[in-house]
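Lab notebook, bench 4. Still working through the backlog of constructs that have no structural model yet. Next entry is a single chain of 262 residues. Request: give me the structure tokens for it.
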Amino acid sequence: MALNRTLDENLQQVFPRPDGLTLAVNLADKLGVVPGDTVRVQATDGHRASALLPVVAIVKPYLAGSAYLEIEALGRLLREPGRVTAAYLLFDSRYRPQFSARAKELPRIVAVSFKDNARASMTKLLSQGSGFFSALFVVFSSLMAAGVAFSAARVTLAEQERDLATLRVLGFGRREASYVLVAALGALMLVALPIGAAIGVFMSRWLMSKFETDLFTFPYVTNAAAYARPALFVTFAVLVATLLVRRGVDRLDLVGVLKSRD
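Model written out:
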């Protein structure tokens, strides 16, 4: 239990119970059962024992399609007390070659897996798959954010041309008139950032749920930096777009703008 723990999505350890099955939520949904229901389990080897067991709990672990039962209760159910199918060992990595060589000589040991090798393989798999698409999404979202910032600045300037020209005619300088445009874009950004963050949380949770498979569950894990970096990028994009569009205030044709019809 110390070297191989079952954790739920909140990183809390799940303890198998002797009085019934603890099912992963994916498996429970497929079977259509809830706590209190009874399911039939059938062993596919050994004595091929079968039994009806109650469902005592449903959890959401990282291994998504599993069922758990306390090992001594499982041994009694299979009529094979003391049966062991796997062992987890902690030893000095300097003795790995000797351990591997000795394990190959023992016919009862079917396979040996090392945690660091399994982790490296899984990291490589995720990097080649979801990692590539994540980088692609970041590039496209960054370009989209910059484009939206510039478009919003242009639209805001077009909507306020008459007001800005009126301010200039009333005696306000270019800097004072520019403050109106900058304030409008700043207020728009302050309103959009929290709304965008809330939508991002919803979309991220939905996307993680779609990545779930029969074998793995991908929990939604984030931190403040994950939202701070996009917020800073959007702020920078809005600032650059504002500086680019602000030059339009200096080039306003006051007479032409005031004479034009809405």
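Notes after review: Strands lie at 21-24, 38-42, 50-59, 67-68. The first helix runs from residue 25 to 31. Flag for follow-up if needed.
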